[in-house]
Design a protein that fits this description.
Layout: E1 3-7, H1 10-18, H2 23-28, E2 29-33, H3 36-43, H4 50-58
Parallel strand pairs: 1-2
C-alpha cells in the first residue's frame, strides 16, 4: 500500500541516490513533490553521475 504524498528535501534524495535506492520513493509514495529550490539544488551540476538518475525518477 502506497502512502499519499511526500515533499522531498535534498538530503534524503542525495542519500538515496548515493546508495542507488531512489526507487524507494516511487514504491512508497503515490505523489512526490519537490520544491523548486530543492530541484535546483539537486540538479545544478548536470555532469554528476546521479543527475541522470534524478532526472529519470522525477521527470
Amino acid at each position: 500500500m502506497k502512502n499519499g504524498l511526500v515533499i522531498a528535501d535534498s538530503g534524503p534524495i542525495f542519500s538515496l541516490a548515493l546508495i542507488d535506492k531512489l526507487d524507494i520513493l516511487t514504491t512508497l509514495f503515490e505523489d512526490i513533490k519537490i520544491p523548486y529550490a530543492v530541484w535546483n539544488e539537486i540538479t545544478y551540476d548536470k555532469t554528476k553521475p546521479d543527475y541522470k538518475k534524478l532526472y529519470l525518477i522525477f521527470c
